[in-house]
Amino acid sequence: MKLAVYPGSFDPVTHAHLDVLKRGLKIFDRIIVAVGEHYAKSYLFPQEERVAMIREAVKGMPVEVKHFKGLLIDFAAKEKANAILRGLRAVSDFDSEFQMAITNRKFNPEIETVFIMTRGMYSYLSSSVVKEVASLGGKLEGMVPQNVENKLRERFV
Ligand code: PNS
């Protein structure tokens, strides 16, 4: 049984994240979505709400959703994961992802980082874009699942 941890802020989860997750399930038997906090970021949704939104969006998939604190690599080791899964959208993502993967490997060389390229149709899509569109009352069709759209609408009434 191959297990991956798919970490992120997911503020909120988008179809781009879900696409990476579904494609990750072609490689891994099970995936744990690990909802974390970056020390320098501020979030629209608290961690529990981000977790709840993802749980609803992944119903029926062999996916668990957990929050974590501390180093990602320690969480992945505790869960006995074989790999960390990350999505790559564009070349601009590469530098920071490379840095993070190398740092994580330095801490624990047993756990590989695996990247899945986001599908072209989602390469523009990020949680930030979604929040900006939602805050300005724009259409969110094709960007986020319905439950996430509802939450965003509540936030930006
Ligand atoms: O998708 P994001 O918003 O870039 O996710 C960031 C997150 C929370 C996954 C990342 O910041 C993280 O893993 N934080 C935990 C601390 C850590 O282990 N950092 C990696 C070493 S550089």
Q: What distinguishing features does this structure have?
A:
single chain, 157 residues, alpha/beta, Rossmann fold, 5-stranded parallel beta sheet, 6 helices, 5 strands, 41% helix, 18% strand, binds 4'-phosphopantetheine
Describe it:
The chain is of the alpha/beta class. Helix content is about 40%, strand content about 20%. The protein contains 6 helices and 5 strands; from the N terminus they run βαβαβαβαβαα. A 5-stranded parallel sheet has the order 3-2-1-4-5, with helices on both faces. It starts with a strand and ends with a helix. About 35% of the residues are buried. The mean pLDDT is about 95. The structure holds 4'-phosphopantetheine. 4'-phosphopantetheine binds next to strand 1, helix 3 and helix 4.
In a few lines, what is going on in this structure?
This protein has 157 residues and is of the alpha/beta class. It has helices at residues 15-24, 47-57, 72-78, 91-107, 127-135, 146-155, and strands at residues 3-8, 30-35, 63-67, 83-88, 112-117. It has one domain: Rossmann fold.
